[in-house]
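C-alpha cells help. Our protein:
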Amino acid sequence: MMDKQLQPKNKAVKKGLLWGILIIFLLTIILVNVTNKKQVNLKRDTLRIQEVIKGDFEDVILFNATVEPKTSVLVNVIQGGAVSEIFVESGQIVNNGTPLLKVYNPNAELNYLTQETAMVEQINNLRNLRVSIKNQQLNLDQQLLSIDNDFRNARRQYKIDSTLYKKEVIARNDFYKSEQEYTFQKERNNVIKKSVSEEKRSRVVQLSRIDTSLLNMEKSLELLHKNKENFIVKAPVSGLLSSFNPILGENYNQGQPIGKIDVLDGYKLVANVDEYYISKLYDGISGSVAVNDKSYEVKLSKIYPEINNGQFKVELNFKQDSLSADIKRGMSLKTKVFLSGKSKALLVSKGLFYQSTNGQWIFVLNSEDKAVKRNIKIGRENPFYYEVLEGLKAGDKVITSNYDDFKDVEEINIEQ
C-alpha cells in the first residue's frame, strides 16, 4: 500500500526537474546570445588606439587649391569671318595691340565700302551747303553796306539842303525831294537791317546744325575706318596668350572667343571646399600656403554660394607679391585657412569611428585588454583632431578605427 502512494509524488518531482532543466537550458542559451551580442573579441593589430590629449586646438581647414592668373581677358573676334592669316602662337607673350590673326569677310568689306562712299558724299554735300550759305551771307553784307551808304548820302544831302532852303538858296521843290529821299532811305535802311539781322540769326542756326552734322559724319567715318581694322584681331591687353588654337580657313562669328590672355600681374588660388564650411568662411579670412618650404600668406577674396556635388568654389589672393619663380600657373597647393585663433582643448585624433557613431560615443579602454562604449560630446574639428566637450579626460585611450562591423556591441575584448 505504501509503494502505491509514493508513485504519484515521484512522478511529479521528476516532471518538475525536467521543466527546471529545460528552463535553465533556455536561460543559458539566451544569456549566451545576449553576451555574444554585446561583446566581441578583436586583435589589437586590427584596431587603431589613440590617447586623448590636452593641447592647442587650431580651428583650420585644409584643401587643395589651383594656381590661376589673377586676371584673364578673353580674346574675341570683333568682325566675323574666315581666318586668312595667323601671326602668333599660343604660349607667347604679347603686348597690347599686337596683331594675332586676320579674318576675311567679302560681304562685310563691300558693306564698309558702300557706307564709306555714302558718308563721303554726304560730307561733301554738307560742306558745299555751308559754303553756299557763307556766300549768301557775304552778298547780304555787301547789300547792307550799299543800303547803309545810300542812307548816309541821303542824310548828308538832306542836311545841306535844309540849310540852303532856310537861306532861300534852293527851291522848295528841291528841298522836298531831298527830304523824301532821306525819309525813304531811312525807312529802307531800318527795314533791311531788321530783315538782315533775322536772316543772320537763321543762318547762324543753320550753320551750327551743318557743323554738328559734319562733326557727326566725320566721327562716323572715323569709326567706320576703325571698324575696317577689326578684320585684324589684336591683343586687348599685354600678357601670356593661351587657349589660342585658330585654323586657317575656319569661320568665327562676331563676338566668339578665340583665346585668352593671362595678365602677368600676379596669381590667385581657386579651390572647391566641402559645403560643411560654407557658413564658417567669409571674405577676408586669412590662410597660408607652403611652396618649396616657403610660406605665403593668403586671404579669401570671393565665395561662390552655388553648391555642386557637395562643394562650393572659393578664390584666395596672395597678400604679398605672387610673381615668384616658385609659384607657377596650374600648381596644386595645399592651402590652410584659419577659422579662429589657437585655444586649449581636449583633443582626440580623427578617425573612421566618427562615421560609425556620428561623434556621439566611442570605445574607451578600461584596461589593456578591454574597451567599453562611452557616450561623448564632440565640438569643433580640424583636419587632425576633434574637440571633446564631454565624456573623456586627458590620458584616456580610445579606439578611433572603423566601428561598422561591431557598432552594436557594448564591450570589446582585445586580444594580443
